[in-house]
Amino acid sequence: MPELPVTFRPTRTRVVLLSIGVALVVVLTVVSLMLEALSTGDRITFITTGLLGLGVLALLSRPKVVATRDGVTVVNLTRSRRLAWAEIVRVNLRNGDAWVHLDLSDGTSLPAMGIQPGVAKERAIADFRALRALVEAHGTGASTA
Questions:
Q1: What are φ and ψ of residue 5, in 5° steps?
Q2: Which contiguous run of DSSP H or E holds residue 72?
Q3: How far apart are CA 63 and CA 86, in angstroms?
Q4: Smaller CB count within 10 Å for the chain: N or C?
């Protein structure tokens, strides 16, 4: 079981997304400056498109799960949610799931996109098991895999 605080995030996915975003900005900027036929407005449009692409990819790289002594913070694409340990009943990562799901005491389920087995399956499974152990140690829940 990891020591608290601990942050779980899909590091490889994050590196790939941010690298592609930066490369997109660089390529579109260089192309806009090399094409002499483009007006200043066209160049600004090229660069802005690259920056928007970087912004979208940065948003996609945002998910993480942070566990502290007080509870768990789940950061997904556009929202964050702070949970006390007792609110988490079960940690789920079933075969074929895109990311971990937290079953909550109010009967709902919360996706925890910070643990996703897409690119680094072994890492995601280890992170899932660590979060499950933390929930079992600090909360009242159980887990399924």
A1: -80, 155
A2: strand 71-75
A3: 22
A4: C
pLDDT of residue 139: 75
pLDDT in tens, 3-54: 999 999 999 999 999 999 999 999 999 999 999 999 999 999 999 999 999 9
Whether 111 shows a pLDDT value over 80: the answer reads yes
The conformational region for residue 107 under phi > 0 = left, psi -120 to 50 = alpha, else beta, is left
DSSP string, 91-140: EE--TT-SSEEEEETTS-EEEETTS--SS-HHHHHHHHHHHHHHHHHHSS
Q: Distance between CA atoms of 128 and 122, rounded to whole angstroms?
A: 10
| Cα 38 from Cα 36, distance rounded (Å) | 5
